[in-house]
Amino acid sequence: MSQTLLIxxxxxxxxxxxxxxxxxxxxxLLLDGILFYWRSLSQRLLSGEALAEFFWWTxxxxxxxxxxxxxxxxxxxxxxxxxxxxxxxxxxxWQIVIGKYLSVWCMVLLLTVLSxxxxxxxxxxxxxxxxxxxxxxLGQVLIGGAAAAIGLFASTLTRSQLVAIVxxxxxxxxxLVFWVLGQAIDPxxxxxxxxxxxxxxxxxxxxxxxxxxxxxxxxxxxxxxxLFGSVKVLEARRWR
Amino acid sequence: xxxxxxxxxxxxxxxxxxxxxxxxxxxxxxxLLGLNGAGKTTTLRILACDLLPSSGTVKVHGxxxxxxxxxxxxxxxxxxxxxxxxxxxxxxxYLQFALELRGKPASEGKQRVPAVxxxxxxxxxxxxxxxxxxxxxxxxxxxxxxxxxxPELVVLDEPISGLDxxxxxxxxxxVRQLKNDHTVLxxxxxxxxxxxxxxxxLVLRDGVVVASGTEEQLSQNLLEGIRIELTVRAxxxxxxxxxxxxxxxPGVSNAGAISALERGHKVQSFEIQAKKDVREQVGxxxxxxxxxxxxxxxxxxxxxxxxxxxxxxTTAAQRAVAAEAASxxxx
Lengths: 240, 331
Fold this sequence. Notes:
The structure holds 2 protein chains of 2 kinds. Chain A is mostly helical. Chain A has one domain. Chain A contains 13 helices and no strands. In chain B, the strands form 3 sheets. A 6-stranded mixed beta sheet of chain B has the order 6-7-8-3-9-10, with helices on both faces. A 4-stranded antiparallel beta sheet of chain B has the order 2-1-4-5. Chain B has a 4-stranded antiparallel beta sheet with strand order 12-13-11-14. In chain B, strand 12 (252-258) and strand 13 form a beta hairpin. Chain B starts with a strand and ends with a helix. Chain B is of the alpha/beta class.
């Protein structure tokens, strides 16, 4: 476990020593602020509706930021040759994957925490419950964590960060449009697709401050599935 | 220390190495020699548990690299052809990271990191960021990360490549110095880079060990007879006649023209490979044919030729013959 944390620590330092971490977080916060003003403050909405609107838009920003933050995790190391150091150290592939995932998850958490002033404005000046804010933020962290796992998986597939983010974005977009496909096809497959959608039906409860076990399990399962895939890709790479 | 038996590695349908068998004893400095594409890096990557073999067994201290890779990795320090350096880290911080990554406690780094830095001449750059280092220093940091956890076996993939002459001399001394505490396996495609450093050489060709032994053993076993170099006063138009005279001498197995420094002053040089010492006969025959002899000397067989012969390259004599054929063709 200590080696997993060691990898996570090094990755976190790398985020702040290169412009990537700061640029992605600053850009995401700027976008969050603009969207908050545009969609929540400048509309005639009740404070609860304004908060739900904020969570809806900021979840998209969190997904995008998570993809940008995770694209480098393995691809960059394979391109520069540093992955050999990890690969020839007494570590299992899952330790490498979890270490890297922890670092990007911490960055997503940081981004989420830094945006808290916006819902706090609504809490102070409007009538929203603290529970709504906490649940909404739990949704942000879960959806961000799932997107980070997808990005990490894409990063294990290639040496190019550009290709990694394109592949990651393609997977995310596909999972986002599941609910649209669900509306176009017949039962019972429509329900399966709607339930598998990354955002819509699964994020809506968090958006309105409802903590649902099914939606929480869904995001944790997506993260687990893609982390498992990442481990398997790294294991398979030992043959090539 | 290392036992390799019938090791094979395929990339798709193409065989990269094997069947390859070799043994390396504890405390040896062994050079793995081969031309580009001979299978050196693949062999070293399998040894370092970076890559899985297709078949065969590799054991380090009796531990199989496929069955118990974690235990093998703890005992190995590996420097790949590109040093695995994180540019944003400081040298000391990077070495501490490499030590802890190999499962050593962080407290051990307080002693090991400065000691290894001292040994490799890195003390003055310990606080420098890796990206600011020269190529020579990067190679040193690469070796430092390979030995910082005090492994029993150190595997270095082309550590000398890209260094300037002064750095090459220093790197040879460094590799030699490692022998005191580690078994060392070092690869190169240039013989002179490692012939002075290693106790023993393994020559790899098409993924198979084609020869193993000391520099002298390889030289004795593979280069038959002697090599003679001679210079005569003659026009370039007489090349074919002179070669005819030389090749007619009993015992001469090969002869070819080589470039002469004084070309343009009616001076031609030749190289002869012969099964016995034919210098007297060569001198007499050329005098008789009317070509004044300016120099005649027996040259020691160069190890580079042994290597090229084993590794599938072209030797100096073969190059001379080819050059002669080319010049004839051009004429």
